[in-house]
UniProtKB/TrEMBL annotation:
Domain of life: Eukaryota
Similarity comment: Belongs to the nuclease type I family.
Gene Ontology terms, MF aspect: endonuclease activity; hydrolase activity, acting on ester bonds; metal ion binding; nucleic acid binding
InterPro entries: PLipase_C/P1_nuclease_dom_sf, S1/P1nuclease
Lineage: Eukaryota, Fungi, Dikarya, Ascomycota, Pezizomycotina
Protein name: Nuclease S1
Single Gene Ontology BP annotation: DNA catabolic process
Amino acid sequence: MKLSNAVAFSLVSLPGAMAWGGLGHVTTGYIASHFVSNSTEAYLKQLLGSREPDYMAKVASWADSIRYTKWGRFTSTFHFIDAHDNPPESCNVDFERDCKGTGCVITALANYTEQSLDPSLPPWRRAQAAKFVIHFVGDLHQPLHNEDASKGGNGIHVKWNGRDFNLHHVWDSSIAEKWLGRGKPYPLAEKWSRDLIDEINDGIYTEEKDTWLVDLDFSDPIETALAWSRECNKLVCKYVFPEGPEAIVGQELSGEYYENAAPILQKQVARAGYRMAAWLDLIVDEYKKRDASFTGKRPTDDYDEPIDELVEEMEDYFGEL
Ligand SMILES: *[C@@H]1O[C@H](CO)[C@@H](O)[C@H](O)[C@H]1NC(C)=O
Ligand SMILES: *[C@@H]1O[C@H](CO)[C@@H](O)[C@H](O)[C@H]1NC(C)=O
């Protein structure tokens, strides 16, 4: 079955509850597309079927849009790792203890990195793998995707401007929305990315940006993802639950808590985008090497994903919202 890009892209532009979401993921996509090499950009534009500057930003939330569909259900535990630690006294991620048998964000990043390198896979599978990689690098940088307490804060009720929200939502969306003000998600994310790119190139992150890549070891995606996850999980003790998960219940977070959290969130988005670019450059270089020496059967371009079923399901799902 051959599918037009129009259909494939209509999938990513459906409205939905976009976790870390609209804004965080899309912004990391814009940042990464600024820092990737020219050859990575050319390769990914071709693979993802877009010549537009938002070729990465547009796919950064795709993994969230499929996770609640029947087809995508197998990915539902790939977006996080439930650190069974004890904030605020101790924060840590233990791979054996915390990664679910059905997979976690650590194994997912490794899995889809490997698939994106595999010349025996057809292009649509490598495209899908790249979209997962782009998304999971983002999730690894949201503190509450690296913490178990009350399902990553989903079960913790707090106040935001006097209204009830759960803490996970505050870190996914409310903090960024307050920082950026009102507007359409893509233009807001694009503007946010420009600010953060400036801070990386010539601003508050310039001196430290090289340290952001010290844990990156392309020969060991599991250890790399774990290092990023541990760094992020540490923020849970300091900024997410400075006085523990019980003390935060019912608290108003749009004031002082927000003032402390916003710079942390910004740095996490900047780091995610910068690391994503470095990771994708390594993927594309390695893929090209493997592809050049590949002697197996050439995969065809045929799009044999159960896509009709998926579109139908997504219409059902989003239709209900
Ligand atoms: C990458 O592309 C940009 C814009 O097309 C160009 O200005 C730049 O020289 C290129 N860089 C390299 C290393 O080829
Ligand atoms: C790896 O990816 C494949 C293809 O999407 C999936 O079926 C499998 O469950 C994944 N495995 C892990 C451990 O993430």
